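Archive entry: two folds, one per protein. Generate the first.
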Amino acid sequence: MSTTLTTELLLHRAGTKSYWRGLTYREAVLSLRVHSRHVAARVRGGDEDAYAVELSWSGTLLVGSCSCPHGSEGFFCKHCVAVGLVLLDRGETVPPPDAEDVELKDVLRSLPPEVLRDLLYEQAAGDLKLRARIISAL
């Protein structure tokens, strides 16, 4: 299996009911941004609330998260389907999990060295593997 976004994959992940509901929610996608390794969107719900939606890959599994009640229970909801369908309509896709994270690289380049050291220390202090990688780099 590959990391290719298709209507069939959206149907498989969401199930028939959520998929068909998602078809009617494409116009409810208020904003959509393709980041280096995920897609973030806002989708209007039936009660006029806007829900935060993210699509990404975990290996070859398409993962969707949504702040709606159904999505908050861990389901791939109609809002996730709508975002996927809008991506396909635009000829776009969910970036692969191993895509270069240009966005992160740009932010890291702009940070002062002391901020980078503090961030790295904070992360490495709680991650023994990262700590070992840093120590062995000397």
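Generate the second and append.
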Amino acid sequence: MHSKASLVFWLTLALYLLTLFTVTYVGVYLTYIALPLLVISGLIMKCTKPKPEVQKVYDESKSAATQTLVGASNFLDGVTEGLSEFNRNLEIRNKIHDLVRERTKAYKTKVQSLKIERIPFEMKLTHTELDSEKRNLQDEVERIDREIELNNKHIEQIKIACELEVRAP
């Protein structure tokens, strides 16, 4: 209350004096408004002036609030720094992922086509009864599995190379 009354008092006084000294004709209405406002706000300011002990407690609480805000600001700075690092790591992962996806597209397509190619052999293998035919079908499935494994190894090598490429300075 004291600070608001003080603001009203000093602002009104400054505007009133400024008007009196700069304007050639000042009507009585300005005085009718300004003087009671000055008197009332001055009395409120005088009556609500805090005691020195209360002012000391008030200043200490301001200091504690300031320290709390400084601590919160430091905490938020740490959070911001952590989020920035997290964002950089995500950017690196995205670059690696994009490179891997681009460079392994042919190998993944080949693996998919090999898996599709293997399906008929597996179906025939489960339904055939001749041992020689089973052996031939089993050999064909194993050949396809080896090709799939080889392509998967190439994909893994490409992943490692992409990660090294992106993470290298």
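Annotation attached to the second fold: The mean pLDDT is 88. DSSP finds five helices and no strands in the chain.
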